[in-house]
Every structure is written in structure tokens, then in C-alpha cells.
Write a structure and sequence with these properties.
The complex is a heterodimer.
Chain A lengths: L3 E6 L6 H11 L2 E6 L10 E4 L19 H11 L4 E4 L1 H8 L6 E3 L7 E9 L15 E8 L3 E3 L2 H9 L3 E5 L11 E5 L5 E4 L18 H13 L2
Chain B lengths: L13 H6 L7 E13 L6 H12 L11 E8 L4 H15 L5 E15 L17 H8 L2
The chains are: A alpha/beta, B alpha+beta.
Chain lengths: 226, 142
């Protein structure tokens, strides 16, 4: 039986369907989850997609973080379920304190939309095991509030514990501290990143296929635990 | 506003309300709690920088701006210590992200509050020449 991977739709989510499609392309069953539901429909992993949930009102992800479904996501994440937060999803994970730090407005004060070079810093997560450490990939980046910030102690802990998962290569596009593009929790099952791997899975619509290993990694993980 | 002739449809107790002075709009004391949220000093504030730059271009020199948010919270009745503690918790939980922001909570009491719509009121000032009803209405609709 194919693993089931859920993608949550919040009011204002934009890339939920792209994420569902990326899950299908990877060979898993894609399950649409509703923000107002109190159930994860028995999925094996969850993706919080990109977009502008609640219009980015108050702060990006600040309101979505209290959606009914998030109680279940937090509980499941604590129990080890793989959770991937993409862009707005990363913001929601930080607001929900499933990941440390916060995302603030790009220091360049413009919306950034580009094919972004990344370096994979950690393969010890349920979403990056298919990569090699130091592998350089290209993933679509599109955000206005992508600057990752955290206090010095938190940054030192993330770096020291190998919890920086992706780093921007080339010029830092948004002012993120230490060029951090993505991080994970202590256990490695919750990963948040600003770039959009779901836009890099199809040669017709994406500049590279570098997003595929992210979804393949979690299938490896789920396959090993069936 | 209801005219005195409509008092009969104002529901139970209308006679008592009329006796109490139906010409005066009922004014409830409303408390307002203001929560100010600002980015922490060590956090980069791109919006503030943009505003600072714009001010400079307009000829306002030597002004450095940091931009935050102000939340005005209308509270029914009094702001007891318990309610204030509630609001502080709301500020900590939702209104501010304490990873990157600080907040400040203060109570403002606005006596002019709002008109209690359940109380019947007279039209204009003709029924009670001693009350400047229109003036009172001006205050309460600020």
C-alpha cells in the first residue's frame, strides 16, 4: 500500500495543489487536508504548503498556526511523524514553535522570485536522506518575508547540532542569518525551508528536478517503517 | 433613535426606562486596552528602513524610524486584574511573536464609550430642553 502524504490547505494557501502533485509524482497517495478539520485522515506525513494563509495578516503564519488541524500536526510531529513546511509552511512551523526562530521581511525589501542555488547541509532528516552532504541543488524561491532570524544562542545550537538543513549559495537573497534556507527539529522529522521543492519535480514546469529527492526521502523513511 | 411614541414597542420595562429619562442616550463606560508591538531592537526592520528613507527624501532629515503595530481592544465593562492578565496572555500568544517582538499593554478608559442601543431615546432635544442631546451624540459617535 502506497504511503499517504497529507497537504494542508489553509485559507490563502497557494501551492497546496503543487505539493499534492509533487507527492503523486513521487509515487505516494496525496491526501488533501482541510485547515478546519481536527483529523489528519491517518496520513503518514504532512506538508504545510506555501502561500499567503490568512492574507499574511498580523504576521505570516500567525493565524494559521492556531487552525484546528494544527493541534493534530503538533501532536503527530511530537510523535515522530515527518512534517515538511514550505515557505509559508515554514513560517507556520516557527509560529507554532515546532521549529525555532522566525521569518521576517526580506532585508532587500523586495519580493524575491528566482531559481535559487542551495547547498544541502544535513541528510539526517526524514526529508533529505536521498541527498549527499554538500550537494548543490537549484530550487525555486519566491517570498517577501523569507529572512530567517534567531538569537545568537539558537543559531549556535542549530549550527552545532547539525540542524541547518539547507543554505543559500551565491548572494543571500533575503538576509537570513548565516544564509540559512532551511532547518530541522532535534529529531529530524520536522523540516522547514523557504524555497519550493514542489516546483522542481516536473521538467515541463520547473527549472530542475532537484525537488524530487525531498519527496523520495520521506518515502524511503516511511517504507522502512511499514 | 426611537421617538417617544415608539416607547410602547421598546419591550419590558419601557415605563421605567422612560421615567429614568428617555431623552438621554445611555452611555456605557467602555474600557480600551492598547497593545503596542515593536520589533526587538536587535531585529532588522526593513519596513522602518523604507519609511526612514522615504522621510529623508521628503526633506525630514535626521529621523530614524522603526515600525510596529498598535492594537486597540475594546473591553465590555471594567478591566479587572484578571481581564488584564488575559489580555497580556493574548498579547504574548497571538498579537506579538516574542521571538522577534516586544509588546506593551496599557489601559485607557474612554468614558464617552458607546450609546446603549437597547435604551429608548427621544428624537432631537425637543422633549427635554435641558439636555443637549445632539452634543452628547456627537461625542459618542467619535
Amino acid at each position: 500500500m502506497a504511503p499517504r502524504i497529507g497537504v494542508v490547505t489553509f485559507p490563502g494557501s497557494l501551492d497546496d495543489h503543487d505539493a499534492l502533485r509533487a507527492v503523486r509524482i513521487a509515487g505516494a497517495e496525496a491526501v488533501a487536508l482541510w485547515h478546519g478539520s481536527d483529523s489528519l485522515d491517518g496520513v503518514d506525513a504532512v506538508v504545510l504548503p506555501g502561500g499567503f494563509s490568512y492574507g499574511d495578516y498580523l504576521r505570516c503564519g500567525a493565524i494559521a498556526r492556531f487552525a484546528p488541524v494544527m493541534d493534530e500536526v503538533v501532536r503527530a510531529a511530537g510523535a515522530g511523524m515527518p512534517v515538511l513546511g514550505i515557505c509559508n509552511g515554514f513560517q507556520i512551523l516557527c509560529e507554532a514553535h515546532l521549529l525555532p526562530g522566525a521569518l521576517i521581511r526580506n532585508d532587500v525589501r523586495t519580493f524575491v522570485c528566482r531559481d535559487q542555488g542551495l547547498r544541502v547541509e544535513s541528510v539526517d532528516t526524514t526529508w533529505t536522506s536521498r541527498f549527499e552532504v554538500g550537494q548543490e541543488i537549484e530550487i525555486v524561491l519566491k517570498n517577501g518575508e523569507g529572512g530567517f532570524v534567531a538569537d545568537a544562542e539558537t543559531v549556535a545550537r542549530l549550527e552545532g547540532e547539525g540542524r541547518v538543513v539547507f543554505r543559500y549559495t551565491g548572494a543571500n537573497p533575503n538576509g537570513s542569518v548565516n544564509d540559512i534556507a532551511g532547518i530541522c527539529n532535534e529529531r529530524g522529522n520536522v523540516v522547514g525551508l523557504m524555497p519550493h521543492p514542489e516546483h522542481n519535480v516536473d521538467p515541463l514546469t520547473g527549472p530542475s528536478l532537484d525537488g524530487r529527492p525531498i519527496f523520495a526521502s520521506v518515502l524511503d523513511f516511511l517504507g522502512a517503517h511499514v | 433613535m426611537q421617538s417617544t411614541s415608539n416607547l410602547c414597542r421598546a419591550g419590558p420595562g419601557w415605563r421605567a426606562k422612560a421615567a429614568l429619562g428617555a431623552g438621554v442616550p445611555r452611555i456605557r463606560a467602555m474600557a480600551r486596552v492598547v497593545v503596542d508591538v515593536m520589533p526587538k531592537p536587535e531585529i532588522l526592520d526593513p519596513q522602518g528602513k523604507a519609511v526612514t528613507g522615504a522621510l529623508g527624501r521628503l526633506g525630514f532629515s535626521g529621523l530614524a524610524v522603526r515600525q510596529g503595530k498598535r492594537f486597540e481592544i475594546e473591553v465590555d465593562g471594567e478591566v479587572t486584574p484578571d481581564r488584564l492578565a488575559d489580555i497580556e496572555r493574548a498579547a504574548e500568544t497571538l498579537l506579538a511573536n516574542t521571538v522577534i517582538e516586544t509588546y506593551d499593554v496599557r489601559v485607557e478608559t474612554d468614558v464617552a464609550g458607546t450609546v446603549d442601543e437597547a435604551a429608548p431615546t427621544a428624537q432631537g432635544g425637543t422633549d427635554h430642553p435641558g439636555h443637549d442631546v445632539d452634543h452628547l451624540n456627537e461625542e459618542t459617535t467619535a
